[in-house]
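Appendix B, example 12.
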Amino acid sequence: MGIVTNKTDKMQSCIDACAKCSQACYECFNACLNEPDLNARKNCVSMLVECAMMCQMSVATMSMNGHFSSEHCQICAKICDKCAEECAMFKDDHCKKCADICRMCAEECRKMANIHSMV
């Protein structure tokens, strides 16, 4: 499951979820920029970028089996939850899909943080 080692096997589903979430947030961000009510989406657009960046950092931290992966993923879960909440306020298909992906990522991050903190 890991690319060059098996040290990240137990984190792979979270790594994959975070990579997908980051991509979804950047895609949603780009789509939101073209919406006529962009001004109403300021909080959401800002949250999309923060979530995407946090997910990218989570991928990096878990990939190197970092010492603070568990704590990092706990924060990532909170950010993903908030991003899902913001996206859910809008009825566009891209926002609904992004909210779903953010929720899924938050759940994977919570699972990973719990597993990793037990080790």
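The chain has one domain: 10-118. The chain has a mean pLDDT of 92.
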